[in-house]
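Hi R.,

Here's the input for the phenylalanine complex you asked about:
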Amino acid sequence: MSQELLLESLATISACKTSQSLEDIRVALLGKKGKITEELKKLGGASPEERKTLGATLNQLKQEITDALEVKKIALTDSELNARLATEKLDVTLPAHVEQQGKIHPITQVAEEITAIFADLGFSTEVGPDIEDDEHNFTALNIPESHPARQMHDTFYLHGKGDNKTVLRTHTSPVQIRTMRAGKPPFRFIAAGSTYRCDSDLTHTPMFHQVEGLAIDKNINMGHLRGCISEFLRVFFELDNVPVRFRPSFFPFTEPSAEIDIGCARSKDSLKIGAGNDWLEIGGCGMVHPNVLKNCGINPDEWQGFAFGMGIERLAMLKYGIPDLRTFFESDVRWLSHYGFDPLHIPSLVGGL
Ligand code: PHE
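And here is the predicted structure with phenylalanine in place:
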Protein backbone atom coordinates (compact mmCIF):
# COMPACT_ATOMS: atom_id res chain seq x y z
CA MET A 1 0.00 0.00 0.00
CA SER A 2 2.71 2.46 0.99
CA GLN A 3 4.77 1.44 -2.01
CA GLU A 4 1.86 2.28 -4.27
CA LEU A 5 1.38 5.61 -2.57
CA LEU A 6 5.07 6.37 -3.00
CA LEU A 7 5.08 5.57 -6.71
CA GLU A 8 1.91 7.49 -7.31
CA SER A 9 3.19 10.54 -5.40
CA LEU A 10 6.56 10.56 -7.16
CA ALA A 11 4.79 10.36 -10.50
CA THR A 12 2.58 13.36 -9.71
CA ILE A 13 5.58 15.34 -8.49
CA SER A 14 7.60 14.62 -11.57
CA ALA A 15 4.69 15.50 -13.90
CA CYS A 16 4.10 18.81 -12.16
CA LYS A 17 4.75 21.91 -14.28
CA THR A 18 4.58 24.99 -12.04
CA SER A 19 5.77 25.83 -8.53
CA GLN A 20 2.21 26.81 -7.58
CA SER A 21 0.82 23.37 -8.42
CA LEU A 22 3.82 21.77 -6.72
CA GLU A 23 2.81 23.58 -3.56
CA ASP A 24 -0.75 22.20 -3.96
CA ILE A 25 0.70 18.69 -4.25
CA ARG A 26 2.81 19.22 -1.12
CA VAL A 27 -0.28 20.26 0.83
CA ALA A 28 -2.29 17.31 -0.50
CA LEU A 29 0.41 14.89 0.68
CA LEU A 30 2.11 16.37 3.69
CA GLY A 31 -0.26 19.16 4.79
CA LYS A 32 -2.40 18.93 7.93
CA LYS A 33 -4.99 16.83 6.12
CA GLY A 34 -2.56 15.35 3.57
CA LYS A 35 -2.58 11.67 2.59
CA ILE A 36 0.72 10.82 4.32
CA THR A 37 -0.23 12.78 7.41
CA GLU A 38 -3.51 10.84 7.60
CA GLU A 39 -1.57 7.55 7.38
CA LEU A 40 0.78 8.66 10.15
CA LYS A 41 -2.23 9.54 12.32
CA LYS A 42 -3.52 5.98 11.99
CA LEU A 43 -0.35 4.71 13.73
CA GLY A 44 -1.87 5.69 17.07
CA GLY A 45 -4.47 2.88 16.71
CA ALA A 46 -1.97 0.17 15.66
CA SER A 47 -0.41 -2.46 17.99
CA PRO A 48 3.14 -1.75 19.23
CA GLU A 49 4.54 -4.35 16.86
CA GLU A 50 2.76 -2.98 13.81
CA ARG A 51 3.64 0.56 14.85
CA LYS A 52 7.34 -0.24 14.72
CA THR A 53 7.44 -1.51 11.15
CA LEU A 54 4.68 0.64 9.75
CA GLY A 55 6.12 3.73 11.44
CA ALA A 56 9.52 3.15 9.90
CA THR A 57 8.04 2.61 6.43
CA LEU A 58 5.86 5.67 6.62
CA ASN A 59 8.73 7.88 7.81
CA GLN A 60 10.88 6.57 4.99
CA LEU A 61 8.04 7.33 2.58
CA LYS A 62 7.64 10.84 3.96
CA GLN A 63 11.36 11.48 3.63
CA GLU A 64 11.47 10.32 0.03
CA ILE A 65 8.52 12.49 -0.90
CA THR A 66 10.00 15.50 0.88
CA ASP A 67 13.27 15.06 -1.01
CA ALA A 68 11.48 14.66 -4.33
CA LEU A 69 9.46 17.84 -3.66
CA GLU A 70 12.62 19.77 -2.81
CA VAL A 71 14.46 18.69 -5.97
CA LYS A 72 11.45 19.47 -8.15
CA LYS A 73 11.01 22.88 -6.50
CA ILE A 74 14.56 23.92 -7.34
CA ALA A 75 14.15 22.74 -10.93
CA LEU A 76 10.84 24.57 -11.38
CA THR A 77 12.04 27.84 -9.82
CA ASP A 78 15.09 27.81 -12.08
CA SER A 79 13.10 27.20 -15.23
CA GLU A 80 10.47 29.78 -14.28
CA LEU A 81 13.18 32.38 -13.69
CA ASN A 82 14.81 31.54 -17.01
CA ALA A 83 11.47 31.88 -18.77
CA ARG A 84 10.92 35.35 -17.22
CA LEU A 85 14.43 36.47 -18.11
CA ALA A 86 13.81 35.40 -21.68
CA THR A 87 10.56 37.38 -22.05
CA GLU A 88 11.07 40.47 -19.87
CA LYS A 89 13.38 43.02 -21.36
CA LEU A 90 14.53 46.34 -19.94
CA ASP A 91 15.37 48.99 -22.48
CA VAL A 92 17.63 51.41 -20.64
CA THR A 93 17.70 53.73 -23.66
CA LEU A 94 13.99 54.66 -23.28
CA PRO A 95 13.34 58.27 -22.12
CA ALA A 96 12.54 58.64 -18.41
CA HIS A 97 8.91 58.94 -17.25
CA VAL A 98 8.17 62.59 -16.49
CA GLU A 99 6.68 63.07 -13.00
CA GLN A 100 4.09 65.88 -12.87
CA GLN A 101 4.20 67.79 -9.62
CA GLY A 102 0.94 69.25 -8.34
CA LYS A 103 0.67 72.81 -7.04
CA ILE A 104 -1.25 74.34 -4.17
CA HIS A 105 -3.85 76.86 -5.38
CA PRO A 106 -3.16 80.45 -4.20
CA ILE A 107 -6.53 80.52 -2.36
CA THR A 108 -5.56 77.51 -0.25
CA GLN A 109 -2.10 78.92 0.34
CA VAL A 110 -3.34 82.36 1.37
CA ALA A 111 -6.08 80.89 3.63
CA GLU A 112 -3.35 78.93 5.41
CA GLU A 113 -1.13 81.98 5.72
CA ILE A 114 -4.01 83.99 7.22
CA THR A 115 -4.82 81.19 9.66
CA ALA A 116 -1.19 81.00 10.79
CA ILE A 117 -0.95 84.75 11.42
CA PHE A 118 -4.24 84.96 13.34
CA ALA A 119 -3.30 81.85 15.32
CA ASP A 120 -0.30 83.81 16.54
CA LEU A 121 -2.63 86.65 17.55
CA GLY A 122 -4.64 84.16 19.64
CA PHE A 123 -7.45 83.38 17.19
CA SER A 124 -8.70 79.81 16.80
CA THR A 125 -10.58 78.61 13.70
CA GLU A 126 -14.25 77.77 13.17
CA VAL A 127 -16.29 76.55 10.21
CA GLY A 128 -19.89 76.71 9.06
CA PRO A 129 -21.91 75.22 6.19
CA ASP A 130 -21.91 76.67 2.66
CA ILE A 131 -25.67 76.07 2.49
CA GLU A 132 -27.12 78.32 5.17
CA ASP A 133 -30.61 79.13 6.30
CA ASP A 134 -32.03 82.60 6.02
CA GLU A 135 -31.99 83.01 9.80
CA HIS A 136 -28.21 82.58 10.19
CA ASN A 137 -27.27 84.34 6.96
CA PHE A 138 -29.53 87.37 7.56
CA THR A 139 -32.07 87.58 10.40
CA ALA A 140 -29.78 86.80 13.35
CA LEU A 141 -27.24 89.21 11.88
CA ASN A 142 -29.75 92.02 12.35
CA ILE A 143 -30.95 91.94 8.73
CA PRO A 144 -34.74 91.40 8.98
CA GLU A 145 -36.84 90.19 6.05
CA SER A 146 -37.76 93.57 4.59
CA HIS A 147 -34.39 95.20 5.25
CA PRO A 148 -32.90 96.90 2.18
CA ALA A 149 -29.48 95.47 3.16
CA ARG A 150 -30.68 92.13 1.79
CA GLN A 151 -30.47 93.66 -1.65
CA MET A 152 -26.79 94.43 -1.05
CA HIS A 153 -26.22 90.69 -1.28
CA ASP A 154 -27.20 89.16 -4.60
CA THR A 155 -28.33 85.98 -2.94
CA PHE A 156 -28.59 82.55 -4.54
CA TYR A 157 -31.82 81.25 -3.02
CA LEU A 158 -32.27 77.49 -2.81
CA HIS A 159 -35.58 76.35 -1.30
CA GLY A 160 -37.87 76.65 1.71
CA LYS A 161 -39.90 79.53 3.12
CA GLY A 162 -39.35 82.22 5.78
CA ASP A 163 -36.49 81.52 8.20
CA ASN A 164 -36.24 77.97 6.82
CA LYS A 165 -35.42 79.31 3.39
CA THR A 166 -31.99 78.04 2.42
CA VAL A 167 -29.40 80.09 0.59
CA LEU A 168 -25.80 79.72 -0.49
CA ARG A 169 -24.16 81.80 2.20
CA THR A 170 -23.44 85.30 0.92
CA HIS A 171 -20.73 85.92 3.52
CA THR A 172 -18.91 84.06 6.32
CA SER A 173 -20.69 86.14 9.01
CA PRO A 174 -23.25 83.36 9.80
CA VAL A 175 -20.33 81.49 11.40
CA GLN A 176 -20.34 84.28 14.03
CA ILE A 177 -23.92 83.33 14.96
CA ARG A 178 -23.32 79.57 14.94
CA THR A 179 -20.20 79.82 17.08
CA MET A 180 -21.61 82.32 19.59
CA ARG A 181 -24.78 80.26 20.02
CA ALA A 182 -22.77 77.09 20.56
CA GLY A 183 -20.49 78.49 23.25
CA LYS A 184 -19.95 81.13 25.92
CA PRO A 185 -17.98 84.39 25.67
CA PRO A 186 -15.14 85.34 25.43
CA PHE A 187 -14.61 84.42 21.75
CA ARG A 188 -11.69 84.96 19.48
CA PHE A 189 -11.74 83.06 16.20
CA ILE A 190 -11.52 83.31 12.44
CA ALA A 191 -13.55 81.35 9.88
CA ALA A 192 -12.36 81.05 6.28
CA GLY A 193 -14.42 79.54 3.49
CA SER A 194 -16.38 79.83 0.26
CA THR A 195 -19.11 82.42 -0.18
CA TYR A 196 -21.54 82.99 -3.06
CA ARG A 197 -23.23 85.91 -4.75
CA CYS A 198 -25.11 86.09 -8.01
CA ASP A 199 -22.64 88.50 -9.51
CA SER A 200 -20.14 88.09 -12.30
CA ASP A 201 -17.92 90.69 -13.94
CA LEU A 202 -14.27 91.71 -14.10
CA THR A 203 -13.95 92.00 -10.33
CA HIS A 204 -16.65 89.60 -9.11
CA THR A 205 -17.07 85.84 -9.41
CA PRO A 206 -20.24 83.98 -8.26
CA MET A 207 -18.12 81.97 -5.82
CA PHE A 208 -15.37 83.62 -3.83
CA HIS A 209 -13.74 83.27 -0.43
CA GLN A 210 -13.84 85.24 2.77
CA VAL A 211 -12.19 85.10 6.12
CA GLU A 212 -14.35 86.20 9.02
CA GLY A 213 -12.95 87.29 12.37
CA LEU A 214 -14.70 87.78 15.68
CA ALA A 215 -13.36 88.91 19.05
CA ILE A 216 -15.81 89.21 21.95
CA ASP A 217 -14.60 90.09 25.42
CA LYS A 218 -15.03 92.75 28.08
CA ASN A 219 -13.85 96.27 27.25
CA ILE A 220 -12.97 95.69 23.59
CA ASN A 221 -12.91 98.85 21.49
CA MET A 222 -12.33 99.98 17.92
CA GLY A 223 -8.65 100.60 18.65
CA HIS A 224 -8.18 96.87 19.18
CA LEU A 225 -9.85 96.25 15.82
CA ARG A 226 -7.64 98.74 14.00
CA GLY A 227 -4.50 97.38 15.71
CA CYS A 228 -5.40 93.79 14.95
CA ILE A 229 -6.12 94.44 11.24
CA SER A 230 -2.99 96.57 10.78
CA GLU A 231 -0.78 94.01 12.49
CA PHE A 232 -2.28 91.22 10.39
CA LEU A 233 -1.70 93.15 7.15
CA ARG A 234 1.87 94.07 8.13
CA VAL A 235 2.79 90.43 8.75
CA PHE A 236 0.79 89.10 5.79
CA PHE A 237 2.43 91.46 3.28
CA GLU A 238 5.83 91.20 4.94
CA LEU A 239 6.10 95.00 4.91
CA ASP A 240 7.02 97.36 7.74
CA ASN A 241 4.39 99.83 6.71
CA VAL A 242 1.19 98.92 4.89
CA PRO A 243 -1.13 101.84 4.13
CA VAL A 244 -4.49 100.91 5.69
CA ARG A 245 -7.61 103.08 5.48
CA PHE A 246 -10.80 102.57 7.49
CA ARG A 247 -13.55 104.16 5.41
CA PRO A 248 -16.86 104.78 7.29
CA SER A 249 -19.50 102.39 6.00
CA PHE A 250 -22.63 100.51 6.97
CA PHE A 251 -23.29 96.89 7.88
CA PRO A 252 -26.43 95.95 9.83
CA PHE A 253 -24.42 93.65 12.11
CA THR A 254 -21.76 96.18 13.15
CA GLU A 255 -21.98 99.69 14.56
CA PRO A 256 -19.90 101.68 13.85
CA SER A 257 -18.79 100.03 10.60
CA ALA A 258 -15.89 100.59 8.24
CA GLU A 259 -14.59 99.38 4.94
CA ILE A 260 -10.94 98.27 5.00
CA ASP A 261 -8.89 99.71 2.12
CA ILE A 262 -5.27 99.08 1.43
CA GLY A 263 -2.91 101.36 -0.52
CA CYS A 264 -1.67 100.06 -3.86
CA ALA A 265 -0.41 100.95 -7.32
CA ARG A 266 -2.31 99.54 -10.29
CA SER A 267 -1.09 99.23 -13.83
CA LYS A 268 -2.45 97.32 -16.82
CA ASP A 269 -1.19 93.93 -15.74
CA SER A 270 0.23 94.38 -12.28
CA LEU A 271 -0.87 95.38 -8.85
CA LYS A 272 1.57 96.42 -6.17
CA ILE A 273 0.80 97.18 -2.57
CA GLY A 274 2.37 99.68 -0.22
CA ALA A 275 3.07 102.15 -3.01
CA GLY A 276 1.14 104.39 -5.41
CA ASN A 277 -2.03 106.34 -4.80
CA ASP A 278 -4.78 103.85 -5.43
CA TRP A 279 -6.86 102.05 -2.82
CA LEU A 280 -8.25 98.54 -3.00
CA GLU A 281 -11.07 97.44 -0.75
CA ILE A 282 -10.27 94.16 0.97
CA GLY A 283 -13.16 93.84 3.41
CA GLY A 284 -15.46 95.27 6.02
CA CYS A 285 -15.37 95.51 9.78
CA GLY A 286 -16.87 97.14 12.83
CA MET A 287 -17.99 96.76 16.43
CA VAL A 288 -20.50 93.93 16.79
CA HIS A 289 -24.06 95.31 16.93
CA PRO A 290 -25.77 94.77 20.34
CA ASN A 291 -28.71 93.10 18.54
CA VAL A 292 -26.39 90.40 17.16
CA LEU A 293 -25.10 89.64 20.66
CA LYS A 294 -28.69 89.54 22.00
CA ASN A 295 -29.68 87.17 19.18
CA CYS A 296 -27.00 84.82 20.49
CA GLY A 297 -28.06 85.10 24.13
CA ILE A 298 -25.14 87.34 25.09
CA ASN A 299 -25.64 90.41 27.27
CA PRO A 300 -24.31 93.43 25.29
CA ASP A 301 -23.92 95.49 28.48
CA GLU A 302 -21.36 93.00 29.70
CA TRP A 303 -19.69 91.86 26.48
CA GLN A 304 -18.72 93.59 23.30
CA GLY A 305 -16.26 93.12 20.51
CA PHE A 306 -15.31 93.53 16.89
CA ALA A 307 -15.85 91.59 13.70
CA PHE A 308 -14.29 91.73 10.28
CA GLY A 309 -14.65 89.99 6.95
CA MET A 310 -11.99 90.07 4.24
CA GLY A 311 -11.89 88.76 0.69
CA ILE A 312 -9.23 86.07 0.31
CA GLU A 313 -8.91 86.55 -3.48
CA ARG A 314 -8.20 90.25 -3.00
CA LEU A 315 -5.49 89.51 -0.45
CA ALA A 316 -3.96 86.87 -2.73
CA MET A 317 -4.03 89.22 -5.76
CA LEU A 318 -2.29 91.97 -3.82
CA LYS A 319 0.35 89.79 -2.21
CA TYR A 320 1.26 87.73 -5.26
CA GLY A 321 0.60 90.27 -8.01
CA ILE A 322 -2.23 88.34 -9.68
CA PRO A 323 -4.00 90.90 -11.89
CA ASP A 324 -7.24 89.13 -12.87
CA LEU A 325 -9.72 87.69 -10.38
CA ARG A 326 -11.47 85.44 -12.88
CA THR A 327 -8.31 83.45 -13.60
CA PHE A 328 -8.51 81.96 -10.09
CA PHE A 329 -11.37 79.71 -11.14
CA GLU A 330 -10.53 78.90 -14.75
CA SER A 331 -8.67 75.71 -13.78
CA ASP A 332 -5.90 76.46 -16.24
CA VAL A 333 -2.92 74.30 -15.31
CA ARG A 334 -0.51 76.78 -16.89
CA TRP A 335 -1.86 79.48 -14.57
CA LEU A 336 -1.64 77.14 -11.61
CA SER A 337 1.91 76.10 -12.37
CA HIS A 338 2.84 79.79 -12.52
CA TYR A 339 0.92 81.13 -9.51
CA GLY A 340 0.58 77.90 -7.50
CA PHE A 341 2.75 76.92 -4.57
CA ASP A 342 5.03 74.06 -3.85
CA PRO A 343 3.22 71.57 -1.58
CA LEU A 344 6.11 71.75 0.86
CA HIS A 345 5.99 75.55 1.04
CA ILE A 346 4.18 75.52 4.37
CA PRO A 347 3.31 78.99 5.70
CA SER A 348 5.29 79.93 8.75
CA LEU A 349 5.76 83.12 10.68
CA VAL A 350 9.46 83.44 9.95
CA GLY A 351 10.20 87.14 9.65
CA GLY A 352 6.70 87.82 10.90
CA LEU A 353 5.44 89.05 14.24
N1 PHE B 1 -20.02 90.16 6.00
C1 PHE B 1 -19.59 91.40 5.40
C2 PHE B 1 -19.63 91.24 3.90
O1 PHE B 1 -19.47 90.20 3.38
C3 PHE B 1 -18.21 91.78 5.85
C4 PHE B 1 -18.15 92.12 7.30
C5 PHE B 1 -17.88 91.12 8.21
C6 PHE B 1 -18.38 93.39 7.75
C7 PHE B 1 -17.82 91.42 9.57
C8 PHE B 1 -18.32 93.70 9.09
C9 PHE B 1 -18.04 92.71 9.99
O2 PHE B 1 -19.84 92.17 3.19
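One thing worth noting: The pocket of phenylalanine is lined by residues 171, 173, 251, 254, 257, 283-286, 307-309 (CB under 6 Å).

Cheers,
M.
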